[in-house]
Design goal:
Layout: E1 4-8, E2 11-12, E3 15-16, E4 20-25, E5 30-35, E6 40-48, H1 54-65, E7 80-81, E8 84-85, E9 89-100, E10 106-108, E11 114-115, E12 132-134, E13 140-146, E14 158-164, E15 170-172, E16 181-186, E17 192-197, E18 209-214, E19 219-223, E20 231-238, E21 241-248, E22 251-258, E23 264-268, E24 272-278, E25 284-291, E26 294-302, E27 308-310, H2 318-321
Antiparallel strand pairs: 1-4, 2-3, 5-6, 6-9, 7-8, 9-10, 9-11, 12-13, 13-14, 14-15, 16-17, 17-18, 18-19, 20-21, 21-22, 22-23, 24-25, 25-26, 26-27
Length: about 325
C-alpha cells in the first residue's frame, strides 16, 4: 500500500511472543525509537510540508502517482542533494503514545501520530537519519535540523533542537553557531546535552568540536577544545566523562574524555570501532569492531581497562575460504 506496519514482541515467561501489529501508518516510517518509561514511540516520516497529518500527506502521494507527467518546478537553489532530487516532502519527527491491553499486549493508543516539528522553529529538513534521541524522562527529544533560508544549498549551518514530545515547542540550543551540528545526546540525569559542532559554515569536512549545553543555565561550554581530532560519535559514560569515536592514523578509535580537564584516554586503539552502545547496569559497552582482514562482529569492551570480549562470529567460514594478506601500517611525512 505504500505505508508501514509496526510490530512488537513481548517478553513473557522467559521467552519472546510472536510478533503482533501495533500500529499502521499510511506512509513509510523510519528511525523507530521507543522510550520505555513514558511509553512513547518516536519515528521519522517524510511528509509534504504543507500537510498537518500523515493521512493528508498520503493523499498527496496518491495524487502525485496519478499525474501524467513527472516535471518539477523549483524556486530555490536546493534542487538536488548529490544524486537525489529534492522533493516537496520533508523528513519530520512524529510521536505516538503506546498502551497495554488487558492481556499485556502492546498497542498504539487511540489518536493520530503527532508531528512535533510542524509549526515550530525547527520546521525544516532533518539533517540526518538517526539524529534524534530521547531525554532520560522521555518528555523531550533532541535532534539536528538544517536552517531554512535562501542560502540553504551552500551553507552547512544546522542547529541542535530540543522538542517536547507533545509537539508544543521546539527550540534551538546553539543559534550562535554557524557550522554543522551533529550527535546530540542527553546526560544521564537529563540536565546537559553534549553535541558535536563545526565552525565553518561552508566546509562539511571541518573538525567536529565537543560542546556541552546546560539546560538550566542555557549556557554552552567546550570540552577538549585543543584536541586536534574530529570525533564522529558521542556518548556519556557518567556525569563527568564522555565517550567518543574518532579517526586517528587510519584507525577508528574509542576514547573517554574527562569533561573537567579535557584529558583524552584511548580505550580501543586498534582496528576499527563502529557503532557504540552502553549496556545498562554494567561497566561495558557493546561495539561493532572490524579490521582490514576481519569482517565486522559484535564485541563488549570494559570502559576502565579496554578489555575486549567477542560476542558474535557472524562469518565463521571467512578465514577458511578466503585468504587475505596480513595488513601492515605505513606512515609517510607529507
Amino acid at each position: 500500500t505504500g505505508g508501514s506496519t509496526l510490530y512488537a514482541t513481548d517478553f513473557e515467561g522467559g521467552q519472546w511472543t510472536r510478533p503482533h501489529a501495533v500500529a499502521e501508518f499510511p506512509v513509510p516510517i523510519d528511525d523507530v525509537q521507543y522510550h520505555v518509561g513514558s511509553d512513547t514511540l518516536a519515528f521519522t516520516a517524510e511528509v509534504h510540508n504543507a500537510t498537518q497529518s500523515l493521512e493528508d500527506s498520503a493523499r498527496l502521494d496518491e495524487l502525485d502517482r496519478e499525474r501524467a507527467d513527472t516535471g518539477k518546478a523549483y524556486e530555490d537553489l536546493w534542487v538536488r542533494h548529490w544524486d537525489t532530487f529534492v522533493t516537496p516532502k520533508l523528513p519530520q519527527i512524529h510521536t505516538l503514545a503506546l498502551q497495554y491491553t488487558a492481556t499485556n499486549t502492546t498497542r498504539a493508543a487511540p489518536g493520530r501520530a503527532r508531528n512535533i516539528i510542524r509549526n515550530t522553529k525547527a520546521d525544516g529538513r532533518l539533517e540526518a537519519s538517526n539524529s534524534f534521541v530521547f531525554a532520560p524522562d522521555g518528555r523531550k527529544v533532541a535532534f539536528v535540523a538544517k536552517r531554512p533560508g535562501a542560502d540553504y544549498a551552500y551553507r552547512t549551518t544546522s542547529f541542535v533542537y530540543v522538542a517536547d514530545v507533545d509537539g508544543s515547542k521546539a527550540e534551538p540550543i546553539n543559534e550562535g553557531d554557524i557550522g554543522a551540528s551533529s550527535s546530540p545526546v542527553f546526560s544521564p540525569d537529563g540536565s546537559k546535552i553534549a553535541f558535536l559542532q563545526m565552525a565553518n559554515p561552508h566546509y562539511e569536512s571541518d573538525r567536529n568540536q565537543i560542546k556541552i549545553y546546560d539546560t538550566a543555565s542555557k549556557s554552552t561550554s567546550d570540552v577538549a577544545h585543543d584536541w586536534d581530532r574530529s570525533p564522529s560519535q558521542l556518548l556519556w559514560a557518567d556525569e563527568k566523562t564522555l565517550l567518543v569515536v574518532y579517526n586517528d592514523w587510519g584507525h577508528s578509535k574509542l576514547a573517554k574524555i574527562d569533561i573537567a580537564s579535557g584529558e583524552v584516554k584511548p580505550i580501543v586503539s586498534s582496528q576499527s570501532v563502529g557503532s557504540v552502545r552502553a549496556l545498562p547496569g554494567t561497566d561495558r559497552l557493546l561495539i561493532d569492531y572490524s579490521a582490514i582482514d576481519s569482517p565486522t562482529d559484535l564485541y563488549t569492551v570494559k570502559v576502565a581497562t579496554g578489555e575486549l570480549s567477542r560476542v558474535t562470529e557472524l562469518n565463521p567460514q571467512f578465514r577458511e575460504t578466503i585468504y587475505l594478506s596480513k595488513p601492515e601500517e605505513l606512515r609517510l611525512t607529507g
